[in-house]
Amino acid sequence: MRIAGSGLVRRWGGRAVGLAITGVGLYIVAPSILSLFGAWPRLADVDPWWFAVLVLLEACSFAALWWLARLALTENTADHVDVGWGTIATAQLAGNAASKVVPGGAATGGVLQARLLIQAGQPAAVVASALTAMGLMTTGVLLLLPVLTIPAVFIGPPPARQLELGLLVSLVMAILIVGFGVAALRWPRFVHLVGRGAGHVIHLVKRSVTADSCAAQLATQRDRVAAAFEGRWWAAALAAAANRMFDYAALVAALAAFDVHARPSLVLLAYVVAQALAMIPITPGGLGFVDAGLTALLVLIGISPDAALIGTLLYRLASFWLPIPVGLLAWAGWRIHLHITRPSADSADSAGDDERQTP
Predict the structure, then answer these.
(1) Residues 6+ apart with CB under 8 A from 108
(2) pLDDT tens-digit readout, 26-40
(3) Please, are residues 242 and 61 in contact by the beta-carbon 8 Å criterion?
């Protein structure tokens, strides 16, 4: 009984703690969620074509992520099993939906995505390596954005302070990101110098981090990414940049729909901070924390509270809420597909289980 009890604690204890943390987090952000949902009827005042623009931009962002996944999966091993676009899209959409509704966030979504890819015939080691490389690549792009944006903040506002220039900013930033990404993947010396520079800065705050240790850690991560995308570094850098910049362009479009005037560079910084909040697994997908944080940051850069609230709601509708039912439909379709195409395998598994249970 004691062994069974300890096993039960090990199995359910972590989940109970995770659910408790999620519950507390949702309780804390409940007022901001309610205020956001209170603005929902105001979306009826938005011109319908803005919804089409946001959906198109988010679809391009997701497609770039599928492209990145295909590059990683097809370059990991010489004897790889070819994986189709439909399988990659289904796995990513299902994993993305799980990360937004299940405690654990991105970790839970990654597990589901990996499971679907493995069921499609991909070796487990290849899937693990590919998803790790993708995570490092997209996170690296996110961390690079503030470095490229801060100079623009100090230069000053563009002429006429037009937010629509944010669409041009996203294109320029994508080009810069591709350049930095390819340089990092092609020249290890470049990564070593960047790591040492970052290490010197971090050492001022955290004494345990040195220039050498930071450079070594960054070089290790660089080697993992370079190996995953060997021979297709330009394409990988372009896909990772497109994934982030199309998503940022969706935020710009959501604000432009309400004739907001703001500096694109400051909106980009607000976007980066909001994406960082989404990585904190207190609530699924950063629910509440991202909404409240993004709204507050937009107000901080000079956007009126009313416009910041409704703009955030429109952006989150396209980037957070809409992909959830799409992902659930993708997962359901995958289960139906497996049931139809692999009934013999399921029967064989069941027969094997019966044989093992027979004394």
Answers:
(1) 98, 99, 102
(2) 545 566 666 666 677
(3) yes
